[in-house]
Aconitate hydratase
Amino acid sequence: MGLNLTQKIIKDHLLEGEMISGNEIGIKIDQTLTQDSTGTMAYLQLEAMEIDKVKTKRSVAYIDHNMLQQGFENADDHKYIQTVAHKHGVYFSRPGNGICHQVHLERFGVPGETLLGSDSHTPTGGGIGMLAIGAGGLDVAVAMGGGTYYITMPKVVNVKLTGNLRPFVTAKDIILEVLRIMTVKGGVGKVIEYTGDGVSTLSVPERATITNMGAELGATTSIFQSDEVTHSFLKAQDRDELWKELKADSDAVYDETINIDLNELEPLLAMPHSPDNVEKVANIAGLKVDQVCIGSCTNSSYLDMMKVSKILKGKTVNPNVSLVIAPGSKQVLNMLAQNGALADMIAAGARILESGCGPCIGMGQAPATEAVTLRTFNRNFKGRCGTVSAGAYLLSPETAAVSALAGELTDPMTCTTDIDVTMPDKFYINDNMVVPPAEDGSKVEVVKGPNIKPFPLNEELKDNVEGKALIIVEDNITTDHIMPSNAKLLPFRSNIPHLANYCLTPCDEEFPARAKANGGGMIVGGDNYGQGSSREHAALVPLYLGIKAVLAKSFARIHKANLINSGILPLTFADINDYDTISLNDELKMENVIDQVKSGKIIVHNESKKLDYEMNIELSDKELKMILAGGKINFIKNM
Ligand code: SF4
C-alpha cells in the first residue's frame, strides 16, 4: 500500500510511536519560527533550558505582530528577541522585513522538511511542501533545544482539485469552499493534502493562501506536493538547490476525499463572524463598504499585490472607503516600488502600511462603529478588527480591490480589467533585514529591558505537598478568568510577575495577594476548569504564585497539559461531592506524593475539616516524568 505525502514526511521524521491515526507519535523538527507576540516567552523558555545553541537546521525569529511603539514595552521585546536570537543561533528578521509566514516561504522554506512555529498560521509552509505545524511557545522552545515534538498521528484528507480557475476566481475562493464544506471544526486531528491535476495550475503563493487558511479548519496542517511549480519558485528565490520532488504514491490511501472542480468555483466570501460562514459574493453584491484591508499572511504575495495594483491603476478609491494595503514582505514591497505598481496604488488613493500583521491582529486601522470592513485576511471573529460592532468579511484581493473602487461589495467577475500576471523568473533578493546568528554566541550580551522578566521554574516534585485552598471557583472557568487578556495587559506577555497580579481576579480580586501572603497553595475548581484558549500564561501565572495543585471536578484538556508542563498537579475528585466540603483557607495536605502520583490515585487530607479526599491524577508516561521533574523545562534539562 502506497503512502500519501503526509505519511512520507512523517515517516522520514519519526522518532517515537507508530503511524496509526490516533496514536501519539514523536517527530523530529528541522526548522522553527517564532513571532514577537509569542517569541519572548519561547526564548525565555529556551534560556531556562540552559541550551547554548539551537539544535535545529534553521530557526528564525520574526518581528511582525506588535510593531506599534507607543511605549517602551514592544521595543524592549524586539531588542530582547534580537539579542537572544543572536546569542543562541537563531536568525532574526527585523521589524519591516515582513510577516513571518510570507518571509519564511520566500527565504527559508524547504520541501520535505518539518517546521514548528509559535503561530497558528505556520501551516502556510505547506504551500512549499513542508510539514508545517503551529504550536505553543514551549513546544517550539523544546524543538529548538533538540527535543521531540509529540502529536497525534493525524488522519489525512485528500482534497482533489480538478480543472482551472476562471479569471477573478482565486486560491482564496478554493479555501473558502473547503471551509464551507468542512466547517471550522472539520479539520481537527487531520492533515489536508491537496492533489489532482488542478494543483499544477496553482503557484506556490496561491498554494500558501490555501494552506494558511487551513488553520481555520482546525487542521493539524495542510500540504501540497513539491513539483516543477515549486522548483520554479525556489529558482526565482535563488534557492534552487533546496528543491526535491515530493508527492503521494499513486496508490496512496486517504481517510476521506473531497472533490472540487475549479472550473465551477465562483468568487466567495466569509460573512461575519466566522470563516466558515461562506456565501457567494454575487449573492450579497451591493452591500455598502466602509473599509477595505488588503494584506496579511493569507494574501500579500507579489502576485496578489500586482493584481490589486492592476485593478486600481488609473482609478480612484471610492470617497466613502478607506483602503489600506500592507504588502507581506520587504521583498514584495521592494518589487512593487521598483516596477511602479506601488505608485499606481498610491495614486488611486490607497494607504500603504508597513510589511507586517497590522490590522489583521488589530494593531491599528480599527474600523468605525458598525462599519462593513472587507479583508483579505483569515479570521473575522467579533472584535478581532478592533471594533466589536463592525462586520468583517473575508475575501480575495481581487474582490477587495474591485469593491474599494465601487464603494460597495462587487462581484469581481464583472470587472473588465486585464489582471493577468505571471510569476517573475527572479524575485528581488536582499536579505539585509535578516540578521544571522553570531559565530560565537558566548560573547553576545542578551539585553533585557525592565519588561522582560525571567521565566518561572518549578522544583522537582516533593513527597509532602501542603497549602491552603486559596480560591474556590465554579464550573467552566476559562483561561480568560485565570489570566485575563486585554490591550492593557498584552504588552506584559514577557512579564509574568506583573501578570500574576491579575490571576483569577475576575473571580476573586484578592486571590493574587492571598497567594503571595501564603507563599502559594492550591486552587479548587469545578467542572471543565481551564476551558477556552491554549494560553500558556494561564498555567505560568499560578506557577509564579506558588500554586502546587489544582483540585477540580474536571479539566479542559489543553489547560491540563499546560499545568503539567508547569509541574502543577492536576487532580480530579473521585467523588465530586467532596468539592462542596472545602472552604476558603482550609489547610490541605498530601503525603507520599511521589508514590501516590505514580499510582494515579492520591489522598488529600483536609486538616481543617478532618476529611480525606480521594483524588485521581491521569498522566501518560511522559507526563508523569514531567510532573516528577517539576515541569517540562526541568524534564528537558535533565535529559
Ligand atoms: Fe497572524 Fe494575521 Fe499576522 Fe497572519 S497576518 S501571522 S494571521 S496576525
Q: What stands out?
A: The longest strand covers residues 155-162. Residues 64-65, 99, 101, 119, 121, 296-297, 357, 360-361, 378 surround iron/sulfur cluster (CB under 6 Å).
